[in-house]
TrEMBL record:
Entry-linked Gene3D superfamilies: Metal-dependent hydrolases (3.20.20.140), Urease, subunit C, domain 1 (2.30.40.10)
Low complexity bias locations: 17-26
UniProt key word Hydrolase: yes
InterPro entries: Amidohydro-rel, GlcNAc_6-P_deAcase, Metal-dep_hydrolase_composite, Metal_Hydrolase
Name of the featured protein: N-acetylglucosamine-6-phosphate deacetylase
Lineage, opening ranks: Bacteria, Bacillati, Actinomycetota, Actinomycetes, Kitasatosporales
Amidohydrolase-related domain: residues covered: 88-415
Region feature Disordered, mapped onto this chain: 1-43
UniProt family annotation: Belongs to the metallo-dependent hydrolases superfamily. NagA family.
Keyword Repeat among record annotations: no
Superkingdom of source: Bacteria
Record keywords, A-Z: Carbohydrate metabolism, Hydrolase, Metal-binding
Coiled coil: none
Organism annotation: Streptomyces graminofaciens
Length: 419
């Protein structure tokens, strides 16, 4: 049975431009995926015949009008019509938490390496991406923030996410314990300043010394304070939320399990309307029942699908480095060579969507909210991306009837052409 969807008025006219993606589950380097012909910016065109997921629901046989880099309300007379019967058109995906792809890491490597990683995820529908770093030396992270901030200023990235070093050694996951440190507000401020206004999010174990003061500091500077890699109690988590934390870094992972006498952070994060919970929907990080628990208790409006991807995403199995730690990727699952902890993922967001609607039976509209609208709102970008509405950037994804990605557009240019 196909996932249910609500209906919006048929024939809705929109304007948007997006980027392309490779077919769901595709492997290989970014350069191996087809890119297809690209429309010129001065040639408006209209996507017709598809089911279009709008903020108000799904519109059958709707039109999406793209003029230049934007979605517009009315089709110019000279517009080219592209018919997509049996397809879906969705807003481009927004990834809050991503460490790399295409064989490239956002924590190390050259500008060209980072751009290759970004392009790999664009081929899979992610038209807006935050680059996440892993735990490292504080000075090294500050230097890295300078490089990434330049790419953010150019529009290639939506910001920088520092995951570590301010996390708990009890829940370190694939982070180097020797480089961990307490979240002293002065150290947190150093990274934020190094990002030159492009720091989007910092993950903290807020129960550590300085954690609550650092949450307040981040909130004052307009940076998302995310609770994660934490060993906090329920009460400590509540204190951090009251101080201004708004995101749960990959809920369930790298935190104490839910207990009936000691509920820990999971209960506090799920129950509070101020928190958006990240979920890694790759079939490895979460049991389907855990995913359903999060959707039922937080609701679709408080879920953000992320990849937590590392270098191997869109590239293949093999040996990789995640910061200073060696990772073995086998059958698409990344684990530390030393100890076997899960070390990020090889997920792309088109696969997260496909799994959500075909296996988890999440309604397509709810999945789109988690993939696009919610993360865009968190980043303060919803006026530009996250939904298909006139005046917004033309960032969109085309899927076939089986929810397999066939096209991606970013700012009015095809990254992958569905024709």
């Amino acid at each position: 049975m196909a996932p249910s969807h609500t209906s919006a008025p048929s024939g809705a006219v929109l304007t948007d431009a997006g980027s392309g993606s490779a077919p769901s589950g595709a492997r290989g380097t970014a350069h191996s995926a087809p890119t297809g012909p690209r429309p010129t910016r001065d040639a408006p065109f209209v996507l017709t015949g598809a089911k279009v997921v709008l903020p108000t629901g799904t519109a059958d046989n709707a039109q999406v009008v793209i003029d230049g880099t934007k979605i517009t309300e009315h089709a110019p007379e000279a517009a080219e019509f592209i018919d997509l019967p049996g397809h879906w058109v969705l807003p481009g995906f927004v990834d809050l938490h991503n460490h790399g792809g295409g064989g490239a890491s956002f924590t190390s490597g050259t500008v060209e390496d980072v751009l290759r990683g970004i392009h790999t995820h664009r081929l899979h529908g992610t038209t807006t991406l935050v680059a996440s770093t892993v735990t490292g030396d504080l000075d090294g992270l500050a230097q890295r923030a300078g490089l990434l901030s330049e790419l953010a200023e150019q529009g290639d990235l939506a910001g920088i996410h520092f995951e570590g070093p301010f996390i708990s050694p009890c829940r370190k996951g694939a982070h180097s314990e020797e480089l961990l440190r307490d979240p002293d507000p002065a150290d947190v401020r150093k990274l934020v300043d190094a990002a030159r206004g492009r720091a989007a999010m910092v993950t903290l174990a807020t129960e550590l010394p300085g954690g609550i003061d650092s949450v307040r500091l981040l909130a004052e500077h307009g940076v998302i304070a995310a609770i994660g890699h934490t060993d906090a109690t329920y009460e400590q988590t509540r204190e951090a939320i009251d101080a201004g934390a708004t995101v749960a870094t990959h809920l369930f992972n790298a935190m104490p399990p839910l207990g009936h006498r000691d509920p820990g952070p999971i209960a506090a994060l799920l129950e509070d309307d101020r928190i958006t919970v990240e979920l890694i929907n790759d079939g490895t990080h979460l049991h389907p029942a855990a995913l359903q628990l999060a959707f039922r208790h937080a609701g679709a409006e408080r879920v953000a699908f992320i990849t937590d991807a590392m270098d191997a995403a869109g590239f293949g199995d093999g040996r990789y480095m995640l910061g200073p730690l060696e990772v073995e990727v086998a059958d698409g699952v990344a684990r530390l060579v030393d100890g076997g902890s899960i070390a990020g993922s090889t997920l792309t967001l088109d696969r997260a969507l496909h799994r959500a609607v075909t296996i988890d039976r999440i309604p397509i509209e709810s999945a789109v909210t988690a993939l696009s609208a919610n993360p865009a709102r968190l980043l303060g970008l919803y006026d530009r991306v996250g939904s298909l509405e006139p005046g917004k950037d033309a960032d969109l994804v085309v899927l076939d009837a089986e929810f397999v990605l066939k096209g991606v557009m970013r700012k009015g240019e095809w990254v992958v052409d569905p024709r």
